[in-house]
Amino acid sequence: MKKQRCFWCLGDALYEKYHDEEWGVPVRDDATLFEFLVLETFQAGLSWITILRKRENFRKAFDNFDYKKIASYDETKIASLLQDAGIVRNKLKVRATVTNAQAFLSVQKEFGSFSDYIWGFVEGQPIKNRVVNYKDAPATTQISDALSKDLKKKGFKFVGSTVIYAHMQATGMVNDHEIDCFRYDEV
């Protein structure tokens, strides 16, 4: 029997795999949270499938999303990234990734982990929404607004409320799987 999935991922094997294995699964590992933050940053203004298709290129270009290394990128490394056709070559987003890695380290120092910090906005537990049609899922919430504002105050870039809500969905801080999707109850 064919599995019922969220409508947004249907028809593309990569999208379906991402949906089935990653999207909405609670992530508490700082390295993975940073990876999703980088990918969401680059996704701003583009489709998520575009970023997913380039994910391995991003992984290679950004040293396996190692935020400690990225925080120390110099102008030579930034220039090389801007020549890398495998990623989205947006100067502001590349620079934001370096800035965000530095801010990420500061948050870790202040809170013990980025995970403790970010999950604090949902009191450590995923919010389980009841989305019937993905088109009805919110693009932002009061929580994503507050988190976005706080991240900006901490020096992060490209972390508007829509980007942050997408990050919350991807990392399982909110469960926005459609209620008839097989993953809704699994995550």
From TrEMBL:
The keyword Repeat does not apply. Its EC number is 3.2.2.20. InterPro entries: Adenine_glyco, DNA-3mA_glycosylase, DNA_glycosylase, Tag. Pfam families: Adenine_glyco. GO terms for molecular function: DNA-3-methyladenine glycosylase activity. SUPFAM superfamilies: DNA-glycosylase. Keywords: Glycosidase, Hydrolase. The keyword Hydrolase applies. NCBIfam families: tag. This is DNA-3-methyladenine glycosylase I.
